[in-house]
Amino acid sequence: MTIPATATTHVATLDDLEALVGQPLGVSSWLSVEQDRIQTFADATDDHQWIHLDVERAKKESPFGGPIAHGYLTLSLIIPMWSEVLKVDSVTMAVNYGLNKVRFTNPVPAGGKVRLNATLKSLEKLPKGGVQITIDGMIELEGSERPAVVVEAVYRMFE
Predict the structure, then answer these.
(1) Are 16 and 133 in contact (CB under 8 A)?
(2) SS3 for 17?
(3) 75 and 136 Cβ atoms separated by less than 8 Å
(4) What is the pLDDT of residues 70-126, one digit of tens each?
(5) What is the pTM of this model?
(6) How many CA atoms lie within 13 A of 63 on its CB side?
């Protein structure tokens, strides 16, 4: 199956999502993971491991041939990419409820590009209004058959 460069699901209300369970929601645009972003993430998290930050040493000693992004940095990029994949006009608040599963399946080299490819796995109506949706997501790595991250993410949305 050929995946379009970008694709977004756009619906009016949360009720419109029910018909989309089991369906692909969309694919975000490519997002570049540059060395300065990796440095900023390292500073924010106090994870200064040389495989992420020491470009020359990583080129010489790392099995990856150069510096790579932190796995959690790559995972966190789901936030801006997710906003490109699904739009629900009636939603007034949405929250990240958590993750059921995460696997870091392929390192992202500094300068690499990633994008989110997401499918609506399930939808559950919440007792006090709103819905909880579970997303099967792949953070794809440009030029690679294997994704960088496979994730099952849970969001709650309210109107």
Answers:
(1) no
(2) helix
(3) no
(4) 999 999 999 999 999 999 999 999 999 999 999 999 999 999 999 999 999 999 999
(5) 0.91
(6) 2
DSSP 8-state assignment for residue 101:
E
What's the confidence (pLDDT) of residue 5?
Answer: 58
- Residue 28, CA distances (Å) to 3, 8, 78 in order: 11, 7, 10
DSSP secondary structure letters along 37-97 = HHHHHHHHHT---HHHH-HHHHHHH-TTSS-B--HHHHHHTHHHHHHHHEEETT-SEEEEE
Q: Which two tokens stand for residue 112?
A: 């690499």
Among candidate residues 117, 120, 112, 122, the one with its CA nearest the CA of residue 144: 112
Residue 137 has a CB neighbour count (10 Å cut-off) of 26
Mean pLDDT of 22-40: 97
